[in-house]
Design goal:
mainly beta; 5-stranded mixed β-sheet; globular; disordered C terminus
Length: 126
């Protein structure tokens, strides 16, 4: 199952399994499927929708003030997602993965490939 892994920003380290959701809303609003408390986000900033007939997810900028980027390209409307894509919205970076069990270190390595992430992964035990 696909998942979204937050690799940078206020919610860094969180993961959201897309699982059985055909449509998720991401933003600051508590009514969103996945709430991200990032002051640069709109209340309803991004939709991620699943198209069953294609077997893929799409990122949709939900008329946000600051926009949505997929792999450093600002999207207008919707953009198909593939494993390893990096979404940037506000001060938050999110890794889209087709594997919902990805560990934080693997997510960090993929994020660094695209020039995102920290030099090391920090855990609460450190």
């Amino acid at each position: 199952m696909a998942a979204l892994h937050v690799t940078g920003g206020p919610a860094q380290g969180q993961s959201f399994a897309l699982g059985q959701h055909n449509l998720v809303m991401i933003g600051r609003d508590a009514a969103c499927t996945f709430q991200l408390v990032d002051p640069e986000l709109s209340r309803t900033h991004l939709q991620v929708r699943f198209v069953g007939s294609e077997g893929r997810h799409y990122a949709v900028d939900f008329k946000s003030k600051n926009g949505v980027w997929v792999n450093e390209t600002k999207i207008d409307g919707e953009s198909p997602l593939t494993d390893g894509d990096i979404l940037r919205l506000g001060d938050t970076t999110i890794l889209y993965s087709t594997d919902d069990t990805m560990d934080a270190q693997h997510a960090g390595r993929i994020a660094k490939t695209y020039g995102h992430g920290r030099d090391q992964t920090m855990t609460t035990d450190e």
